[in-house]
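Changelog-linked ticket: 2-acetamido-2-deoxy-beta-D-glucopyranose example.
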Amino acid sequence: MVSLIIVGVILFWGAFPLPWTTAFTPLSSTGSLTHREITQMAILRKTAEVCRDIATAEGQQFTLVIDNRLTVSAVRKACSSSVLSELRFYGAILGIYLSNAAIDAVFVLSAKHHVDNEAFREGRSLITQGVASVKFSMQQGSYICARVTLGGVCHTLQDFYSHSNWVEMGNTVPFRNLTRPDLPLNNLAGPDTQTCRNCIGQNCGENILPEILLQKKLTSGYFSLFFSTKPAGKCSHGGSSDRTSTREPVGGINKDEISSSHGSYHYRAADLAINATMELLEDIRLAAGNLAFLGLMGLSRTSLLAFVIDTTGSMSNDIEVAKRVSFNIIDSRRGTPNEPSEYILVPFNDPGFGPLIRTESTDIFKERIRSLSASSGGDFSEMCLSGLLLALAGAPPFSDIFVFTDAPAKDSELQNTIEAMIESTRSRVTFMLTKPFSSRRKRGVLESQRILSRAMSQPEVQLYRDLAHVSGGQAIEVTKSTLSQATTVITDGSTSAMATVLQVMRSPAKAENFSFVLDSSLSNVTLYITGVSPIFTLYSPTGVSQSGSETDGPLGSIQTVGNLWRVKLNSDVQTGDWSISINATSYYSIKVIGQSSVDFLFHFLEQSERGDLTPKDNRPLIGENSTLFLSVTGEDSVTLTDVFLAEVSGSDTVNGTITAVGGTDFLVYLQKIPEGAFVVQMKGLLSNSSSPDRFQRQSPTQFRGSRVAIKVQSNGIVEPGNPFSLSFTLATNAAGGNYTIQARTDRNFNVSVPGSLTLDEGGSAQGTLTLIAPSDTESGSDVTLTITAVDPGSTDSNYVTLRLAVMAEVTDFTRPVCQVVKIKADCPVVCSSASWELYANLTDGNGTGIAKVFINIGNGSLSTSQVMSENGTNVTVAFYNASCCSPEVQVVAVDEVGNVGTCFTSIKRISDNNTIAIPTTNTIFSRCYFVSVSMYLLLCNLIVFFVW
Ligand SMILES: *[C@@H]1O[C@H](CO)[C@@H](O)[C@H](O)[C@H]1NC(C)=O
Ligand SMILES: *[C@@H]1O[C@H](CO)[C@@H](O)[C@H](O)[C@H]1NC(C)=O
Ligand SMILES: *[C@@H]1O[C@H](CO)[C@@H](O)[C@H](O)[C@H]1NC(C)=O
Ligand SMILES: *[C@@H]1O[C@H](CO)[C@@H](O)[C@H](O)[C@H]1NC(C)=O
Ligand SMILES: *[C@@H]1O[C@H](CO)[C@@H](O)[C@H](O)[C@H]1NC(C)=O
């Protein structure tokens, strides 16, 4: 089928090839369900169920209907009443389905990743290894890594339903054995079993042999992009890209789209894939717990506060201020909806930096800050960027990071790596620079120290300014006495759901007029202006103006701290076209932000070898066309009118061509990636207000293209103590030469990589990288590896950022067993007057042992005790007691490696009003589900998708 989107694309793109899909289409296909939609639907439904269960347990109403019509916005609202940023929820979902889609680009030729070629065992092993890795990562709070792995696992799981004959055999429930290595895989069609016959012309309705379906033998289609060979009599995948389908038996069996060989089964396959994905998510939720599950989905309390603090001797005064400022911030947000759910602290010095301290406890965090003391620091510059890199790698995407320092960065060679991390995490960095220009000479200070504490030079400060600006943050130059006033900035910036309306910087300064649109979803709109003696005037839509020197004017109040002017608009902000005219002596920056759940996310896409659009997470190629996948958050539907790339250092723009792909998701085709840094801006109409409500948003993060591309073939496992190798390809569309390669991890793991690679004009070259994780690295830890390539003239660079899971081999495949041994239920008609009880024995056989036991369904109380059975095994005895009004219970036992065993019991007999519990053991039924996980230590895979 030629979908509408593809029609649109053909109109705009001329000779765009038809998509030769070989799995559910990764991201877009009108009329058929894509991996994106299947994954998102399963996540939304499961997340809504989790939120419903939490609400029910807390005795609260939950009215959202859980079906395939759920939207991101509706689930977010039902899950949290506060003004949480929707960006992180959408971002988490996006992270999962983009890693799902990336499988089609990275593992294009791997049969097991797509359950092609009857690779059922290998596919199952990928799934179960991956699920175990997800659980380990969640245990360590490594949600980003967990999402990447989960996306990949979902791809293989979902492909099973499209590529096998499970649906054709008449099955109406997911194939549970595929996610459980403890169950057999019976009835696989053997290597010599013929499974298909020729299609009749284009009609593949009955090409699977009747006896295969009758005997319920499992098979899947063979696939190859290059060769037509396949074992005799085997089914093919089908479609124009599959060479095997031209050989007898001709035709295929895939259900990827409604136009596929078995397209008439497409919706049934997709529906089963959604349900199978939900079952997988349920297993993860039970192993990790509801809170961790919501964390995985970016729905836990979302704000994180990260401080990177200089502890060298020259900071001795400032460090006290930094401490005071941090305490103020922490205290002012305690008990409010903005209370951070996590804190990160990274001290840095010279030559030392780190370690990264991460905690959810306010008290521990304050204690850690209190114990910082300023000392040593051999010379003037310090390891500021190394400290910042740790924070960027450790914090979730879209975090706010504050750096306190008074000295230039000694490790300025990390600038490229830092920019790469900022682009890929979209975190915002704000520098608090104390007295950057004035002499810090103090009375009574030794002569030698006086020399050490000179002021920073312009270029040294500019590095901080540039990095801040690339990230959408600011470099605020303050004196010791005004550092504490700068707190307001930190407080503003770290409230959740802050959307950027406009951000520009001019260095050198140039008198200019900037206009921007404020919409009705925005509140607490604030402008930040930094610069040297900036002169500015703000104009409202009705022409009311206020100059920068009016601290309390008709439009808002203005506060000044060092080089920062903060303009807080009055609360009854007028919607419509605003403008600001500005000039300054050397440079200025303007930033307009406001609280709103309406925001947007985007990713660059590239065309995979299979012809689909798949994600890429590094710099697109300068001068070439590109496509953005863009999602608007906070609304159920929205109209986009403009999307464009705006050059940072000028006023040139590249306009995109917008195609809606359902919900609030869009594809934006861009003719050409500009030379210099750019931001993405969008304009549109909010649809939920009566009058047209124009809005605009801008990416706070700056991006840039590159003339060099890095692609990594990452397919391995980081096992503690063992070398881990990966190969990468460097390619350029420019003159070539000797490219400098740098690779480093946030954990200072030993990495060896060629220092440079030489490319011919328009050519490419291969390199190999080896990394070793210390043998005592804990399973589930992740490591962020950044590889950067810099061109011979040091004017251009590109990068790849990989998040790898470190894991030691796991051999426990045994799931806990839950056995109900006794139920006492004597429940009268009026249920509230009595209670019932249950005893269950929980064991883990030869496994790693039961790590936790809890109630997932039911609101009674549970207690456990340990006993030794006659044959010497450990038994956990669970005693459950509940009101007769709560007639159901699900007991869950999780072992040390995340294998889950559950038992469900109900004393409910369906009756007319459904509230009466009848006491008789005959009505009691009990079933146990187990999920077991086999596992190897595992690559958590990459966060990144590759160029080229
Ligand atoms: C995009 O660029 C590629 C590579 O240069 C080219 O083959 C393709 O035709 C371009 N697409 C459009 C629509 O111009
Ligand atoms: C799945 O596992 C069950 C055991 O729980 C087994 O009876 C069944 O044959 C298996 N199905 C297939 C298709 O292998
Ligand atoms: C998927 O699950 C939903 C809800 O649990 C159910 O209504 C539907 O029938 C299931 N579909 C399939 C194909 O199993
Ligand atoms: C605006 O910010 C203030 C604190 O600065 C906060 O108390 C208030 O709730 C915010 N208003 C809205 C609508 O969020
Ligand atoms: C803007 O400021 C610069 C530097 O002070 C000055 O040279 C220039 O004339 C100013 N431009 C306008 C239009 O005022």
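Closing comment: Example verified and attached. Residues 826 and 919 are 5 Å apart (CA to CA). The chain has a mean pLDDT of 83.
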